[in-house]
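Per your request, structure below.
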């Protein structure tokens, strides 16, 4: 009987351990939120120069580069730092001519010229100059200006403060739930 009693206790202990391993923690989830406003301290936009012409790609590249250099010179003259100018696109695409089909016989398309497109991303740290710069780059040769945005240049401190505030909000909610449910909370298991 003693042997049978020890075996039963060992079985109960092993069974209890396996249940605890299967369900090791009792957890619940809460969501915390925080919002921190940051001032918009820079303007950003993209200036694009498109140059179209014949099949002489060398001449087209020179024309396109001259216009883009004029835009860069204008921006630097107006106080934009060279580190705030970045080429984001340079492409050369053919333009095709399609002949007339006669009796189901269509000639293959032929290249009649090329279009070169170059885009420059600009950051303006003195946002009061944005309007003047937009007008000036069009005068300097930009065919298109797009994506004018006012943003915060470096929001890493604000993001960190928001994360801390969100965790504090989640902790308060967890404490409130624990009080309402008459249980204690332990350590945070994970956060996202």
């Amino acid at each position: 009987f003693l042997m049978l009693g020890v075996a039963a206790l060992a079985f109960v202990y092993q069974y209890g351990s396996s249940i605890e391993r299967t369900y090791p923690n009792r957890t619940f989830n809460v969501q915390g939120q925080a919002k921190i406003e940051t001032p918009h301290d820079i303007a950003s936009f993209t200036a694009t120069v498109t140059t179209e012409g014949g099949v002489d790609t060398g001449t087209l590249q020179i024309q396109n580069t001259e216009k883009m250099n004029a835009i860069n010179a204008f921006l630097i003259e107006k106080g934009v730092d060279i580190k705030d100018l970045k080429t984001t696109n340079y492409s050369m695409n053919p333009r095709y001519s399609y002949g007339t089909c006669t009796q189901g016989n269509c000639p293959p398309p032929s290249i009649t010229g090329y279009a070169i497109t170059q885009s420059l991303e600009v950051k303006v740290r003195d946002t009061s100059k944005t309007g003047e710069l937009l007008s000036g780059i069009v005068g300097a040769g930009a065919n298109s200006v797009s994506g004018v945005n006012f943003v915060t240049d470096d929001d890493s401190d604000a993001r960190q403060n928001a994360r801390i505030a969100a965790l504090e909000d989640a902790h308060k909610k967890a404490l409130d739930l624990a009080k309402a449910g008459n249980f204690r909370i332990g350590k945070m298991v994970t956060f996202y």
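Strands lie at 42-53, 85-97, 110-124, 144-151.

Regards,
D.
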